[in-house]
Amino acid sequence: MAFCVHCGQEMDDHAQFCPHCGKQQTKATTSSSSSGVYDDGNFGWSVLGFCIPIVGLILYLVWKDEKPNNAHAAGTGALIGFILGLIVGGFRLALFM
Question: What is the separation of C-alpha 68 from the centre of its chain, rounded to a whole number of angstroms?
Answer without folding.
Answer: 7
